[in-house]
Structure prediction request, 371 residues.
Amino acid sequence: MKALFTFFLSLLLSLNLAAQDHSHQSARPISFPNFGAYQTLSTDLHMHTVFSDGSVWDIRVQEALMDGLDAIAMTEHLEYQPHSADIPHPDRNRAYDLALAEAKDHELLIIRGSEITRGAPIGHNNAVFIEDANKMLKEKAEDAFREAKNQGAFIFWNHPAWTAQSSKGLPVLSDFQKERIKMGELHGIEVVNYGAYAEESLALALEQDLTILATSDVHGLIEWDYSNKGLQRPVTLVFAKEKSLAALNEALKAKRTVAAYNDLLIGRQEFLEPLILNSISIHNAHYMSGTEIVELTLKNECSSDLIFENKSAYTFHESSPVFVLKAHERKTFKVKTLQKMKSFELKLEALGAFYAPSKHPVLSWEVTVKE
Prediction:
C-alpha cells in the first residue's frame, strides 16, 4: 500500500513539474507584427530584484517568458542596496548572472545593465549592454556615465517626471543632462515608467533626439503590479535587423522604437505608422445584397487594444465612428460608399497612438471589394 502511495505521489509530482515546464505563457502574451526589414522585439529594460531594492529573487526570467518578451535587462541600483545586510552581494553583476543561467534553455535575451542612482538634477539613469557593472561604481556620476560609454552602453534617463526629481511632475533638462547628450553619454528617455505616461517626456525626446522607451520598473511581481489589475507591463518595442544583443543595441541607438502600454502606443511617425498599419488586417469586404454598403471585417493582429476614429470619405452604417478593436479581436463594420466600387480607402485616426504630444497618426488601408 505504501509503495502504491509513493508511486502515485511521484507520478503527481512529475506531472505537475511537466506542466510547469511547458506553461511559459500568459493568457495574453505581448506580441506585435514585424514590418519591412525589421523584427519587432518586445523588451523590458528596467527591473529590480532583491539585489538592489526589489522584493523578489530570480523570478524575472519566468515572468518575461510568460509575457512572451524577447529581451529583458536586469538594472539593479549601483549605489542603493537596502537588502545588503541580509543578502551581502559585492558583485553588482549577480542579478544578471542568475537571470542568464535561468534563461539558458530559452530564446529570451538577457541584457547586462545597471542603474546609476543620484538625486536631482542627475536623477536615475539606466545603462544597458554594459560589460561589467562593478567598474561603473564611481563616486562621481560623470565618471559612471563615462565608464558606461566606454563599455559601449546604451544609456537612458529614467522616469524624468518623477516628483522626487521634479516637484511639478515635469522633466527638467539640467546642464548635467545637456552635457551627457553632447558627450554621447545619454541616448534615451522613458516616456512611460511603471504605468505612467508623461507627454512632456515625449516632447523632450523629440526635442533632444532621444530614443523613446517604456519600462515596467517592476520591484515586486509583474502579477501584482500589472496582471492582477488587468494591465500589461509597459514595454519598448525595438525594430531590429535580427534577434541578437548587437542588433538590439544598434536599433536602440538608432531610435527605432515604440513605447507600448495597454492601449497606448508612442513613437516616431516613421515607426509608429507601419507598426499600426501591419497590426490591422482586412477580410471579406463585399457589398451587402441590394445595397451600396460594404461589409468588412477588421482584425487586430497585436496584443494592444487599438482605439480608432473613422476619418474616411465614407461613414459607417449602424456603428459609431469611434471604436475599440481589442487585442486579436475581429469586428465587422459596414461602410456606406454610396455607389458600387471595386476598391476604396479606409482612413482611421489612431486615438491611442501618439507621435508627438496630442498628435495622432491618421492611417489609410486600400480595401479591395469582392465581386
Summary: The domain at 280-368 is CATH 2.60.40 (Immunoglobulin-like). Residues 1-23 have pLDDT under 50 and may be disordered. The chain is about 25% helix and 30% strand. Residues 2-21 form the longest helix (20 residues).
